[in-house]
Specification:
The protein is an all-alpha fold and 386 residues long. The protein is 50% helix and 2% strand. The structure holds zinc ion.
């Protein structure tokens, strides 16, 4: 436990050192002593989310354009290597069972680091074995062997498979139809077919379909209507579900859908699309995050009165980045509320890491062959029998 604390303290401590009074755009700086107290109270419940802590912190730093010292990056790589399961995929901590959520977090964290050392940690052949072990005949995925099915798993699987060049049509057979069956009468997507539409699941399902090139099969207009109705008139932030309170983390899960929808509708030939703005109130979201979601001593949060944490820090910043940057590499329009120092780096709306890190990882892994596909043919035949 102490080791874990020192691991995150290292990242955080370096962060404090690199801030060194440069400017005050985001006061994430907090005394190290407070930080250690914070972790010692919270570490136990995060014991199965340790790759997530790496991702949340590294992604927050890349959005803030803070360089990660090489020694820290290497330490994080070695820690994540210990989280990689002998059966493939990554676990929530060393010695735990592989699980799709920390697998997504670990692969994203390694792609943010983006060094040869980081890329080489991922055992792609074993990762493919793991993805097959959680694939279900109806196209869905369980989160871990013997675990629950929901649409997060399809996104985590599609995200890591596409980044590391192990995505095959066979692995995602029936997945499109299964995800489509999660879109309900509200227009958003639920975790499994038949439940209430929810921001997190809607993002996961839509982003997975974008990766699979099938997002046009959603009812895009109904989805658009649902998501824009989740931005709250008074607060400017987003709620996760109908009749719920605003929450800073949905700044990404909901607002992150708008770039995906913009692109999908553009591909469908929709002619009325703006070339300067997403279809939500970008300034209002920035006001909510900057004015209501910052802890005065550092870090970001759900809503005023709640405590800061690394999850909300990551997703508030990710949502702020979406609200500041319209477009893509070719067409870019920025809307920065307040001082120029408020500007964050852009984030990729599908993977939620910086776009150049996505391009770099894809380029790197494209040079490597897709692991033996035939090996899994029998496994698939077997699973079809159940
Ligand atoms: Zn939240």
């Amino acid at each position: 436990k102490l080791k874990a604390e020192s691991q995150y303290s290292v990242i955080y401590f370096c962060y404090i050192k690199t801030r060194g009074g440069k400017n005050n755009r985001f006061e994430l700086v907090t005394p190290v002593t407070n930080y250690r107290v914070f972790l010692s109270f919270r570490t136990q419940c995060l014991d199965a989310s340790r790759p997530w802590l790496c991702f949340w912190i590294l992604h927050s730093l890349e959005l803030l354009e803070e360089p990660i010292p090489a020694a820290v990056a290497s330490d994080v790589c070695q820690f994540l290597a210990r989280c990689q399961s002998p059966t493939g995929g990554f676990a929530g901590g060393p010695g735990q069972h592989a699980h799709l959520a920390p697998t997504y977090a670990a692969v994203n964290a390694l792609c943010i680091i983006g060094t040869e050392e980081a890329y080489n940690i991922i055992d792609r052949e074993k990762l493919l074995d793991f993805l097959w072990s959680v694939k279900q005949p109806d196209g869905s995925f369980v989160m871990h062997v013997g675990g629950e099915v929901d649409v997060r798993s399809a996104y985590c699987a599609a995200s890591v498979a596409s980044l590391t060049n192990i995505l095959t049509p066979k692995l995602f057979e029936n997945t499109t139809n299964w995800i489509l069956s999660c879109q309900n009468w509200e227009g958003g997507l639920s975790g499994v077919p038949g439940l209430e539409a929810h921001g997190g699941y809607t993002f996961c399902g839509t982003a997975a379909l974008v990766i699979l090139g099938k997002e046009h099969m959603l009812d895009l207009k109904a989805l658009l209507r649902w998501v824009v109705s989740r931005q709250m008139r008074f607060e400017g932030g987003f709620q996760g579900r109908c009749n719920k309170l605003v929450d800073g983390c949905y700044s990404f899960w909901q607002a992150g859908l708008l770039p995906l929808l913009h692109r999908a509708l553009f591909k469908e030939g929709e002619s009325e699309l703006s070339r300067q703005r997403w279809m939500f109130e970008q300034q209002a979201l920035q006001e909510y995050i900057l004015l209501c979601c910052q802890n005065p001593t550092g870090g970001l949060l759900d809503k005023p009165g709640k405590s800061r944490d690394f999850y909300h820090t990551c997703y508030c910043l990710s949502g702020l980045s979406i609200a500041q940057h319209f477009g893509n590499v070719d067409l870019h329009h920025e809307i920065i509320l307040g001082r120029e120092e408020n500007r964050l780096a852009p984030t990729h709306p599908v993977y939620n890491i910086c776009p150049e890190k996505v391009a770099q990882a894809v380029q790197h892994f494209l040079r490597l062959p897709v692991p033996d596909v035939n090996k899994h043919k029998n496994a698939n035949l077997l699973s079809n029998c159940f």
